[in-house]
Each structure stands twice: as structure tokens, then as C-alpha cells.
Amino acid sequence: MSELYMMTAIITRDRTKEFAAFYDRYNVPVNFITLGNGTATNELMDYFGLDGTEKAVIFSIVTRRTWKKLKTGLEREMRIDIPGTGVAFIIPLASIGGLRQLRFLTGEETFEHGEETVLKDTKYELLIIIANQGYTEMIMDAARKMQAGGGTVIHAKGTGMESADKFLGVTLASEKELIFIVVKKEQKNAIMRAVMEEAGLTTKAKSVVFSLPVTETAGMRLLEQYAEEDTEEETADPGSNG
Asked: Is 20 exposed, middle or buried (0-12, 13-18, 19+ CB in 10 A)?
């Protein structure tokens, strides 16, 4: 299985700076921090020791080796297992759009990319595009040319942006937009390539894109049905007036 993961930590907002310093101590060079509010049911919040107060969500790209160290540190130093502190988890990455982007996100940490047997049967993938604010339409226009559907945008603040000049050859602003697009697996490469070419590092958007496997979906059947209907209409005789 892949040794690269997207790590997500959901914590109380008042501990954001404390957790950012923790990540820095463990040499996690790049983090993306966004804000949210707790919305889980009372039973679920009780289980995790969370409440409905304001939250911070921290996204990072880590290797399995780094995750093991972080997990120990989160438990021993940050006491994340104490009720009310937060929760952290990892999701395997399916791919990253470019070697320079990989080096930037991981700080040049080496890893072994094994066979992704668990991911072979996935039908969809989640594209995550990290870009400068204000360029969502540029990115979505590129993605739609390759038949991508709609996306979801989250505003976030990036830390570790000073390393971008070393790895990417560009300077990145800290204010970011995270764009989430669910795509069919067979469409992924074309959409990622289009985004990198039309809204990538050589453009003002300065996009970095990677994908995550989606093992289960709900509500995608109707999207497929509409796509099939559109294809049938396009292949019908354009001169026919019915």
C-alpha cells in the first residue's frame, strides 16, 4: 500500500498555535489550517470527548514513518487522547501531481511506494487542489474541460510556505483555497494534467494537486445517469427537430 497519507487533525481552535508548533518540532513542513464548528451528534461528541465549540482542522501530507512518530507525540505531548482535545486520522493518497509538489509537501522525505492493492477496485477518487485565493474559476474551467463535475471550496491558511521557493521555484502566499472534486478514477489523470497545465505553478493560481481514493460513495448513481443521458443527446442527429 502507498506510504503517503493525508493526515487530518480536528482540534479546539484555541490550541491551533500550540499544535502548529508541535508539527514544526516533528518536521512536518507544510500544513493547511482551516476553521470549522462541531456538528456531530451528542453521542458521537461524547465518544470522542468533543463539543460543539469552534474547531480548527489541520491537513498535512505525511509518510507512514512520520505518522507513527506524530501519533506517539500526539498522545504523549499533546494528550490528544484526553476528552476534549481532538482527534487525528490518516487517509492513503492515490497520487500527487508532480515530483516537485511531492518534495514540497513532504520536505524531501523519502518513502517507498508499494503496490496499492487496497485501492485497485476504487471507482472514484477525490481530487484536492491547493491554490492561491481567487483562482477557483480558472481551476474549475480547466477541470470541466475534462468532464469534471462541481467542486467544493474551503478557505485555509498555509504554514511552511517559505519552503515553496526551494522546492517549487515560486513564492506562495499563505492564504489558500482548497478545492475538492470527486471524479471517476479513469478521468483522474486527464483532469489533474489539465489543472497543472492551465492553473499550475507557472500561472497565478500556483496550484498543487493530489488525489485520495474514495472507497464508497452515495448519490453518484444519478450523476452517472445524467452523464449517460447527455452523451446520448450529443450523439443524436443534430439536424433532427423531433
From this structure: middle
Q: Which of helix, strand or coil describes residue 78?
A: coil
Q: Where are the beta strands (DSSP E) in the chain?
A: 4-12, 31-37, 54-63, 86-92, 95-96, 124-132, 152-159, 175-184, 208-214
* Cα(195)–Cα(180) distance, integer angstroms: 13
> What are the structural domains of the chain?
4-220 (3.30.70.120)
Place of cell 442527429: 237
Give the angle 139-7-83 at the CA atoms, nearest 5°: 130
CB atoms within 10 A of CB 106: 22
Residue in 135, 156, 127 with CA at minimum distance from that of residue 31: 156
Q: Which residues of the chain have a pLDDT value below 50?
A: 1, 39-41, 44, 47, 115-119, 219-223, 226, 240, 242
Ramachandran category for residue 206: left, alpha or beta (phi over 0 → left; psi -120 to 50 → alpha): left
Residue with cell 518536521: 27
Q: What is the pLDDT of residue 226?
A: 46
Which secondary-structure segment (H or E) carries 41? none
Nearest to 120 by CA among 215, 231, 19: 215
SS (H, E, C) 208-230: EEEEEEECCCCCHHHHHHHHHHH
Q: Give pLDDT tens digits for 152-210.
A: 788 888 878 877 777 777 777 778 888 888 888 899 999 999 999 999 999 999 999 98
Question: Helix, strand, or coil here: 157?
Answer: strand
